[in-house]
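tmp note - Arylsulfatase
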Amino acid sequence: MRIATTLITSLTLLLINSAITSAADRPNVLMIMVDDLGFSDVGCYGSEIETPNLDALADGGLRFSQFYNTAKCHSSRVSLLSGQYCIAAGDTALNHAVTSAEVLRDSGYFTAMTGKWHLKQQPTDFGFDRYFGHLSGACNYFRGDNTFRLNGDKWEVPPQDFYTTVANVDFALQFLDDARESGKPWHLYVAFNAPHAPLQALPQDYAKYQGRYEAGWDRIRQSRVAKQAELGLLPADCPPSPRPEHIPAWNSLSEARKRFEVKRMTTLAAMIDRVDQEIGRLVTDLKEAGELDNTLIWFVSDNGACPYDRRSNKLDALPTDGTVTWSDSTGWAWARNSPFRYYKQNQFEGGICTPAIVHWPAGIERDAGSVVRQPAHLIDIMPTFADVTGSKIPTEYPGRSLRPVSGQSLRPLFKGETIQREQPLHFLFASDRGLRLGDWKIVSFRSEAWELYNLTEDRTERIDLAEQEPERVETMVQQWTRMTRELLHAPDRAYAPVGPAKLPHRHPEWTNFDADPSESGRGNQANTNTRSPKAGKAIRARKNTKLKIAGDELRLEFSGEDSGLAFDRLPETLPAGPYQLAFQLLRRAEGGAEVFYTTDATTSLPNGMHETFELGGEGQWHDHTIRLETEQRIHKLRLDVGEGSGTATIKELRLLDDQGKVLLRWP
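out:
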């Protein structure tokens, strides 16, 4: 009997020790996402910007040459976290998905996040044990905004000695200390806002790049393409896409335009350099803790470089404090996405293909510095994390109706193997569409006529084969439509037939190079929206929005991003805040909901203060009251209640004081 008991005890101890060893061998997982980074913006992808830390991770790990995102900020974050396409996951509410944090936390991991959230609720509601960052889609790098949170609680941004990119890593290092004290393996997600606009850099970083961009975007793009060929990143016979009609030759620009454009690219380079420096701090910490070899590090961008030239102020100043805010440049976005075409939100390669670096010495069996040429997507990351950590993706979860993930584990690629795609890669944001099936890709610019490219022979999408292969186009369009309807569960309007081509492609927010740069705002285009004649209550329909006023109802029809209402000049007689913005909303549209407001007359929207709020289900009236937490008088106001195509009706729109007294009523 004693022998049997001893044997059982020994076996039990053996199993326990085996489990402990297995847990100790589980990799830590560090996910890094940057915002609006172009394909060639990192040194190991062709850039002249100094990124030694990212280059070292690539040299010791691997790089992807065909890694895809969704071409847009919030939808890429949904896909990264959930392994699903954004609409299928429930969009920003994630009500049909679980996150990588929830999957790994439930498998015994300590989970933490820093940086930009841009989804509903907070990271601490979706599996993260720790969180520091801003819930908004963008913020002032020096001043932040009022959406900063620390572990679920409101966090006040210091009035000085603050820069968001640095703060993200300051808190990330604190969270890593907490993780080590817990004794658990950890999953850390660092979501940098950089280099998303507003373009703002630390003084020392800006000074480092002064004098480097006077040659202009033609020369910079040429040198980046040449470096990409030297690196073997793309085939040697891969010609870059030509300069498009909407980008002028650098030498044709006015001197005033050149000066401002040089400063914008100097700022972008400084912001990207700072991201690399902060990643270096993280890597140093992992080395000192002895964790680098068994930490799976993944670096990605949410979309390609941004072309939207919205509003800039103080063009003659330096963007090295929170008072100067500059927008993006379409010309530099073209250079930054070398060698591809187009930009953020477009489903051409320039919008959806960005750097992806993986470093994991204990788990990657390929030669260090390898380039993976097989297509992959953000939807593959969460399944990969579950695979390498031995975690299970649930099919049921409290409070949510889960849908299957569409991504696949990329672990075989770490071993030098290949994967077989179970379905094509699907692309949809607002009215931009795409499908990648093997070597072939169809793409539609803002729901215009479908174009067809063979990416093996024409990676830079120069030769449209749609007229030569109409049957292939029709078959792929049917596949895209079926996936949109049955896999994404998108509304009918999302897969309405495309319209005719309008060539050359144009967008109202791309830079108007015929205008003086001081005429900044919305691609430097004149605003043609009509305003209400009532002083202090003027309502402006924002871009891609049609507004009809019927009695006490504001009826909106959306046809693209950045839609909604703006109130550019509120009465000077308004008392100081705080305020409440109250209204009833009936909506049939995509996207989240946001309120922007300013507390001075000179700040341009969407800069200033920012609040997000949750929307109810489509097709039903819902009451909303949003608190505007300021003790100053507000000057301008913006209300966004949709994105993409759709409709919304707002009634009983009122601005209230803190006690509920009506201060303003629209219309």
